[in-house]
Here is the input.
Amino acid sequence: MKLYRHSFVILVLVMTLILPGCWNRKELNELGVVLAAGIDTVGNQYEVSVQVVDPSAMSKQRIGDRSPVLVFSERAPTIFEALRKMTTKSSRKMYLSHLRMLIMDEATARRGIQEPLGFWFRDHEVRPDFYIAVAKGRRAKDMLELVTPTEALPAMDLYKSLEVSEKSWAPTAAVNVRELFQTMTLDGVNPVLSGLTIKGDMEVGKQLENAKQPLSFAEYQFVGIGVFREDRLIGWLGEEESKAYNYIMNRVFSTVGRVKCPGKEGDFVVEVTQANTKMNPMIKNGQPHVVLNVFVEANIGEVHCKVDLRDAQVFNAMQQAAQDSLAIILEAGVHKVQKEYGTDVYGIGEAFHRKYPKQWKEWKKSWDDMFQNDLKVEMRFDYNLRKLGKIIGPLQKESGE
Amino acid sequence: MTNYGNAFANHLQDNIVAIKKAMGDSTDLVIREMTLAHTCNIGLFYLDGMADRQTIQESVIAPLLDRVDDPTVSLDVIRMSMLDASDVQSVQSMDQALDKVLSGSLLLLMEGHAHGLIVALPGWEDRSIVESKTQPVVRGPGDSFIETLRTNTTLVRRRVKDVRLRVCTITIGSESKTDVAFMYLEGVAKEDLVRDLKQRLEKARVNQVLEGEYLEEILQEKKRLTIFPLLYNTDRPDTIAAGIMEGRVAILTDGTPFVLLAPTMFVDFIQSAEDYYQPYVFSSLIRLLRYAAFAICMLAPSLYIALTTYHQDMIPTQLLLSLTAQREGVPFPAFVEALLMETTFEILREAGLRMPRTIGQAVSIVGTIVVGQAAVEANVVSAVMVIVVSITAISSFAVPSYAMAIPCRILRYIFMGLAATMGVYGITIGILVLITHLCRLDSFGVPYMSPVSPYRKKERKDAVLRFPYRSALRKRSGAK
Here is the structure.
C-alpha cells in the first residue's frame, strides 16, 4: 500500500516533467534571429520585411560569398499574418526577441503608427528595447537591404550608430519602443521618431560590393526628427531644430556647437560636456507659461578666429556668444514646433498636468490649440565655458603677432 | 562467534594442537617450542610478518634462554621480571589470545598453566607518513594519516596535548576484527554523541570493515535517503585535530588513512585546511570562490541548455549570434549534446583514475584530442559546449572535498534533465527541492545547513567566511 502511494507520487512528479514537455523549446539552429524589421504600406496592405541573420555566413566554416543577413518580406493586411506567412519562404521560425531596429516608411507613419505597432507591443516574444525610426523618403525595405560597411550585420550597425550618436551628437534622438509607448499613452505629450535615410547609389548599396572598398557607394544616415500628432507623422525637424528638441527634452549628453566669434572673422566650436534643462510650468494671467532653465557647461574645442583666450573679457564675450547662439537655436526650434506644427512634442502639457492637475482638466481637450496659440515659452540660460584645451590661441608662429 | 575452543588446556601439546587446528596450519604461523630446566616446556606463537621477529628474538627468546636452567621460572616470573617488552598481559581464553596473535602479538604458553601471556610486539611493514594526496596544501602541515591506527592516533594527539583527550577503541567486523578508535575531548564533545556512536557501531553486524565508508553507512539512519555525505572524511591530521577541539568526535579506522568526523555540516566540505593557514581576507574570498565553483559544477551545463533552448531572449544579441553560428550543423539538440559531452568527460575521468599511472598520459592525450578538437571539427558538438563542459569539470575539482564533488556530479545530470524539459523554471524548482532537502538533513542531531539555517550567530564566524582568529577562535570554544 505504501509502495503504491509512493509510486503514485513519483508518477505524478514524472508526469509534471513530461506533460509540459517541449512546449516552447527551440534549438538555436531552428531559429531565424530577426535583428531588424521594416513596415511599408502598399495599398491597403502592410509589407513587412525582416532582416534575419544567416548563421552559416557568420560561422567559421562559411560557404562562399554569402551575405551575413537575409531579408524576407511578405504582404498581408496585418503585421502578424505577414510574419507568419514568411515561414513559407524560410526554413526557420522568425525569432523576434532580439529585434534591434524597427523601421517604418513615411507613408505608414503618416497613416498612423498605432495600428502597425500594436503587434510589437502585444507579442510576448518581442522585448521592448529596440529603436524605432522612420525611413525618410525611402522604403523601409530598402533600409533593411542596405549593406553596411562597419558591421557585418546592418541592424547592429544602425543600432550602435544610433546609440553612439545620441550620446555625442545633439540632433539625434534615439527613441526606443518603451519611450514611444509612454508618450503615446500620455495626454500632454506627442511622440517623435528619428528619421533615417540612405544617401548614395541604392542599387549598388544593396550588393555586397558596397562593403568591399573604403568608401561605400551608399550609406545610411540619421536625419532629424519626425514630429507626430497623436500617432501620425506631420513633419520633420531639421538639424538645428532637432538639436533644440533634445536640449529642451534634457537629452543632450555631449555635443558640439559652432559659434561665431564675437567681433572677429571666423567661428569657434564648443564641446558641450553637460547640459541640463528644467521645465518649470506656471500660470500667468490665466494663461499657460513655461520657463525653461537651461544650464550648459562646455569646453572650447576648436578656434578659427584670432583671439587671445587668456583675456578674460574676450573669454566672457565668447561665453556670451555661445549662449546667444544656443538661444537662437532653441527659440527657432520651439517656434517651428509650436507655430508651424502645433504639436506638443516637448511634453509641456504633461508638465502642467503634474503641477496643475485641476487646471489641466479644463485645458486637456483644447491643449493642442492652446499650445499653438496661448503658451508663452520663456528661456533662461546659464552657460559656462570651462576649459580651453591644450593650446591657448589658434596655431600660429610665435613671431606672427 | 568463532568455532575454536575457548579455554586453554593444562598441557602445552593440547594447546598447540588446538591452535593449529584453529588456524588451520597456516604457513605464516610460527610455533617455537622451548624447554626450560629440562622439564618445563614453553610455546611461543606469533604470525610471521605481523609481529616483529627481531624484537621477539631480543626481548623474549634471549631472556628466556639466559635462564634456561633456572627451575624457579614460572609464568608469573616471566611476566613480572624477565620479558624485555613494555606491553605484557595475562590472557585466560583462547579466543582472546588468538585475536591478539592475529593482530600481531606474541602468545606465550607454558606447560602446566591454563593461561598464557600476550606480548604486544607488532611489527608489520608500514607506509611512511607522506603528504596528503587528496587535500594537499601550499602552506601548512604536510603530514597525513596512514593505514596504521596507532600512528594515526599519535598524529592527532601530538596536535591536541590535552589531558581530556580520550581515545577509546572498539573492534568491529566478525572477520576483519577492525579496530575503530574514537577520539574526543571529554567535556567538550557531547557525551550522548560519543555513547550513541559507540552503541550503534557495537550493535552493527558486519563481517568486515575495511574503510570508514563501511561505518558511515552503518551509522546512517535507514530512513534518511540522501546523496550528500553526512560524515566528513579527510586524511589530514590537522583538520581532525581542529574538529576534535571544536567538540566533534573523530572516528579512526584501522587500515585506512581516512578519518571520519562527526557531526558534520555542509560548510565543512567547502572549507579547506589551508583556509586557516592563509590571511583571513584571502581565505574568505577563496571560500566564496569555492561556493561559486560548487554552483558552476552543478548548474553550468543545465543553464546552458535552458538558456539556449528556452530563453534565447536572455542571451545578449551578439553572444546569441555567435552561439547560433557555432551550433550550425550540429545534429543533436543541446541537451543530447551536453549529455554526450558530460558522459564522455565522466568516462575519461573514471578511466584516468583507475588505470595504471604509466598509461594515464595516453588517456589524457586521447581525451583532449577527441573531446576537445576532433568532436568540434567534425561538427558533432559545438565549441561552446566544450567550454561549458571544461568549466564544469574544473569547477568540480575546485570543491575541496571529493565527497562533496560526488553529489555535485550526480545533481548535474538531474539539473540537465530539468533544464531540458522546463528551462530555467525547472532549474529553479530543482534548486528549491535541493535546498529543502539539505535543510531537512542532520548529522547526529546537528542540522546539516547550520550555522546558516538555522542561523547561529556565534558559529557563523567560521562558516561561509573566515573571520580573523582574534574574534572567531576565542568564542568558538565557549559556544559548544
